[in-house]
Amino acid sequence: MARFILALIMGAFLAAPAYAAESTFGDGTIYWPGYPEAEDAYPELTDHNTQDHYGTPDITGGVASATDGLDSVRFNIVITREADWTEELWRNVWFVLYPGDLFLDTDSNGVWDYVVVMNPDKTDWTPIDTYVSNTQFGLNRDAGLYPLHRFTAPLQAPFTGAYPYHETIKPANFRPRYDHPIWADSGSSYMGAQVGSVQFSGWPTFPEGYNMEPLPVTFDFNTTSLQGLNIPTNNLTIGFTVSTASDVILQQVSVASGDRRPCPISVPNMLLLQ
Fold it and tell me: Where is the signal peptide (predicted)?
C-alpha cells in the first residue's frame, strides 16, 4: 500500500502544471554599444551620451517570465515631462511616440536571435529630419498580434551586407538620440523566417489625471502559433526602445524554467487510500 501511495504522489507531481518563474530587470544602459551620438555631427546634443533618458519616456525596467521557455516580457514605462513643457505639449509629444521592435539574444553573445517586428509591412522610411510636425507617422502601436522572426544581425558593426536597422525618427518638440537602432530592417539579409506571432498589449494612451505611475507594455509569447518554440531564458539579453531612443533597454536576464509542484494530498485523503 505504501508503494501505491508513493506512486500516486509521484504521479501527481509529474502531472502538475509548470509555474512561471520571473526575473525583474532595471535599466542600466544609456545607449547600445557602438551607437553614441556623434559629437562632430551633433555637438549641441552630446549630453545625450551621458543621460539615461530625456524628454519622454523613462523605461524603468520590467519583468521577464518563463515556464518552458519565454512566456512574456513586460516593460514599465513612465511618461516623463520636461520642466518647460506645457500640459498640451506633454500630450503632443507622447502622441507621436511609437514602440520599437523587441530584440532577443538568447545566449547573450552579441548577435540577435529573434525580433518581434512591429512594422512588417513598412518598407519605405522617411528621413528623420522631415518629421517636423506633430503628426502620426503611419507606424504600429495598437494591441494585436505581431510577427516573431529569426534575426541574426550583430548588435553592432561590422555587418555583412546592408545595415540591418532603421534608426530614430524625430518629433517636433525634442530631438531624438540620433542614429540609434529602433527597428530591424525587414529587407535585411539578416532577417529570417517568421516563426509565429506575439501578442502586444498596445502602446499606452495618455491617462487622464496622470500622476507619473509606471504603465505596463507587454509582449506575450503564449500564443497558439508559438507552442513548442521554447525560447531559452537562462542567459537572455533583451533590447528595446522607442522611436526617439530617448530611453533604451539592453538588459541581460536569467530566468530559470518554471518549477513543477505536486498537487497536495491531505493526510485524511491518504488514509482513505489504505
Answer: 1-20
**What was the pLDDT predicted at 265?**
39
C-alpha span between 79 and 211 (Å, rounded): 9
**Domain co-membership, 151 together with 268:** no
**pLDDT at position 262 over 50:** no
Mean pLDDT of 197-214: 93
Cα–Cα distance for residue pair 26/81, rounded to 1 Å: 20
Residue 272's domain spans which residues?
A: 1-18+261-274
Nearest to 31 by CA among 132, 153, 168: 168
What value, to the nearest 5°, has the Cα angle with vertex 132 and ends 129 and 133? Answer: 155
Q: What predicted TM-score, i.e. pTM, was given to this entire model?
A: 0.85
Residue 253 has pLDDT above 70, yes or no: yes
- Whether omega for the bond prior to residue 158 falls within 30 degrees of 0, making it cis, is yes
Q: Residue 82 in contact with residue 174, Cβ under 8 Å?
A: yes
Residue 68: other Cβ atoms inside 10 A:
14
